[in-house]
Write a structure and sequence with these properties.
Elements (H helix, E strand, L loop, with lengths): L5 E12 L4 E13 L3 E5 L6 H9 L6 E6 L8 E4 L11 H6 L8 H10 L15 H14 L4 E5 L7 H17 L3 E5 L3 H7 L2 E6 L4 E7 L11 H13 L8
Parallel strand pairs: 3-7, 3-8, 5-6, 6-7
Antiparallel strand pairs: 1-2, 1-4, 8-9
This protein binds adenosine-5'-diphosphate (ADP) and magnesium ion (MG).
Length: 247
């Protein structure tokens, strides 16, 4: 694994220009993300979260500013779970995963990940046969397949039922504990964010701005339903009235 000690985000300007419209999505955004930190970002729809992840991933280079990733001189592995699972419909679950590996796919590791995500029996199915929850689990495995130093997740649990989301969240967390790496997780769900994060970043829109940047100092192995999470949530809602409008 490359020695990634942090990510420096400095986006002076990101403006979308279409024939009829100019929209400044991000202006003057500066953040430092520490090594192996689990950061949850919360913000209203349209505030630029996907735009930000695309810039960090290097998929969007049409912006002014700089993304500095320490250790990037070595080969940095970035896993990205997109807002939509984006599986290749003409390949099976297993093949979709195998294709994520740059070299020969490691059979034992894929088996292990399929087991962890409870997908072994579906490995030869095509995506059209899978529920959305299963497709999202395949997408998460693909992102893990590269053994990421940096994992980007864009609202990966939206439109899943609560028990499925809880189950995948626990699996994701277990994988992070097993193999620490830096995580940037975009979510709308404050309980989910508190359950997972070392740090919460609340964002506003037009253009994107950091409203609050808050450490979560609840001991690990948190349970979703624990009173500590609820107390922390209530504290956030009362002390940071500004975030109320998101939730
Ligand atoms: P979020 O992920 O927080 O919902 P996005 O990053 O998708 O927000 O979008 C931020 C803003 O930029 C929105 O106003 C959206 O309409 C606009 N936007 C996103 N992609 C494009 C694009 N390709 N062309 C023009 N505007 C875009
Ligand atoms: Mg988005």
């Amino acid at each position: 694994m490359a020695a990634v000690s942090g990510i420096h985000i400095d986006i002076r300007d990101k403006t979308y220009r279409t024939a009829s419209h100019v929209h400044q999505a991000i202006a003057g955004l500066e953040l430092h993300i520490g090594r192996n930190q689990f950061v949850c970002m919360v913000g209203p729809s349209g505030c630029g979260k996907t735009t930000l992840l695309n810039i960090i991933a290097g998929l969007d280079q049409q912006f002014q500013g700089r993304i500095g990733i320490d250790g990037a001189g070595q080969r940095l592995h970035i896993g990205y779970v997109f807002q939509n699972p984006r599986l290749l419909p003409w390949h099976t679950v297993r093949r979709n995963i195998e294709l994520a590996f740059p070299g020969p796919p490691p059979t034992a590791l894929i088996d292990e990940l399929l087991d962890v995500m409870q997908l072994r029996t579906a490995q030869h199915h095509y995506p059209e046969r899978l529920s959305l929850g299963m497709q999202r689990r395949v997408a998460i495995i693909r992102a893990f397949a590269v053994n990421p130093d940096l994992l980007l997740l864009d609202e990966p649990f939206v439109s899943l039922d609560a028990p499925t989301a809880r189950q995948i969240r626990a699996l994701l967390y277990a994988l992070w504990r097993q193999r620490p790496h830096t995580v940037l997780f975009v979510t709308h769900d404050l309980r989910e964010a508190i359950a997972l994060a070392d740090r919460l970043i609340f964002l506003s829109s037009e253009p994107m701005r950091v409203l609050a940047d808050i450490p979560v100092d609840i001991p690990r192995d948190r349970r979703d339903s624990s009173s500590e999470i609820e107390t922390f949530r209530q504290h956030l809602l009362s002390d940071y009235g500004i975030i109320n409008s998101h939730l």
